[in-house]
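re: that complex we talked abt at group meeting.

here r the seqs, copy pasted straight from the sheet so there may be weird spacing, ignore it
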Amino acid sequence: DIVMTQSPDSLAVSLGERATINCKSSQSVLYNSNNKNYLAWYQQKPGQPPKLLIYWASTRQSGVPDRFSGSGSGTDFTLTISSLQAEDVAVYYCQQYYFTPRTFGQGTKLEIK
Amino acid sequence: EVQLVDSGGGLVQPGGSLRLSCAASGFTFSNYWMTWVRQAPGKGLEWVANINQDGREKYYVDSVKGRFTISRDNAKNSLYLQMNSLTVEDTAIYYCAKDGYNDYWGQGTLVTVSS
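got the structure back, here u go
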């Protein structure tokens, strides 16, 4: 199975500052035939289901603020929040959907410093 | 508007069974792979199973193989998860979602396995 490893496990950032979360997969999730990385990012707030933020590693889901961006390819990926807002406090997960079983990272808890 | 409504959770004893349902609306259900994802209390997300459009391809995480069965009824726009031989480790909120990148999720249904 593909192991997804996020870093850090938790992160405290000041309002207006940049937050960066990393995700590493144990195998490449880049499909060479279409040059797409099968990697998604989700945000989960307490008591709510996860919300899709980014898919294909860098495509922002409709309605997601442009302060959220995704980058990376192959095995190494990054979610960046350019200017942290209070409503961004949540747990963030990466997920690969290239292989079955689909697998998630362990989550990164983002808080306000 | 796309909606996924999960139901069927509850309290069950170890060794018992439960059938979860997910009612889909707002999209052409029969065109999509569907999936179940679970989240144990205070823990992360765990993919459980998925099923293709006509129900002939099904895949499971190792920990539920032989105990859980995913199915669908495209005429009813519904997804199911039959869970047998439940253990305390199966205690979780279960979410249905469109497979692949999960752009739509149900609200979740809580399954508690306890004596």
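couple things i noticed - The longest strand of chain A covers residues 19-25. The mean pLDDT of chain A is 97.
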